[in-house]
Amino acid sequence: MVLLISFVFAVSGCASQIIVDSYEPPGFFMGIIHGLIVPFSFVGSWFSSDIRIYAFPNTGVGYDFGFLIGLVSSSLVSIGAIADS
Questions:
Q1: How far is residue 15 from each of residues 3, 6, 18, 63, measured CA to CA in Å?
Q2: CA separation for the pair 7, 84 (Å, rounded)
């Protein structure tokens, strides 16, 4: 078990993200919009590698919170539409 944990830490130490220069990364309100259109983005991502569900780079916590609000709202609307059927 210790060997496995050591291996995971050794491999993850090499991981890094690319640094992208973005003039105005998406913020809170774009996070809400991206969260609302997740179902369409998800289906579109099956057919095109240019379509992503989540924006990178973004402003961080603000974008994440907006994305979560949009995602929950989108899910509640979908569940409500199914329940009314």
A1: 19, 15, 10, 23
A2: 51
Our CA angle for 29, 74, 44, nearest 5°, is: 90
User: Is 40 in contact with 71 (CB distance < 8 Å)?
Assistant: no
Distance, CA of 85 to CA of 71 (rounded, Å): 22
Cα 49 to its chain centre, rounded Å, is 15
Which H, E and C letters describe 23-80, residue by residue?
CCCCCHHHHHHHHHCHHHHHHHHHHCCCCCCCCCCCCCHHHHHHHHHHHHHHHHHHHH
**3-37 pLDDT, tens per residue?**
888 887 777 766 666 666 667 889 999 999 999 99
